[in-house]
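Dear Dr. H.,

I hope your travels went smoothly. While you were away I took the liberty of generating a structure for the chain from your last submission, since the lab meeting agenda had it listed for discussion. I wanted you to have the full record in hand beforehand rather than looking at slides cold. The sequence, exactly as received, is reproduced here:
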Amino acid sequence: MADVGELGKWGGALVASGALGWVGNAFVEWWKNRGVAAEARTAAEVDLEQHRDGLTFQLLAACRSEIAALTTQIDRLRPMEAAFYDLQQALEHMDALLVTPAADRASVERNARAFLNRMRRNAEARGTITNEVQRAASTARLLTDDLPPPAAA
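The corresponding predicted structure, in token form, is as follows:
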């Protein structure tokens, strides 16, 4: 049988050996799995980057559709811009007529009459253009309609 002192010596050596084996085993496992962890980290980064790219392309598509919608709205509002400009000019002429003293009124009245004449010419031109468009549409309709042949006399 072994002595108690000798048993204590061997017991301490066994515990130290076990602890050293456990630490060594943990180090070996870490060494083997460090490549797996790096691959997992790289795969996660790639997945995240693909998600970001997909989200970016979705945002770009949404922005493009919004730009198209806004462009359509602006195109519908653009003809109104000229009417607002004409109205603003008319208000400025009325303001000038009301504010200007009688001595300087001749030039202001001349400018207001010129504005009115220009507005009349623009209205006549719009009417002429409308008439031309209607005439062209009527001519095209007459040419495409099936008309009966002229009767022999």
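Two observations you may find useful: Residues 4-99 form the longest helix (96 residues). The chain has a mean pLDDT of 81.

With kind regards,
E. W.
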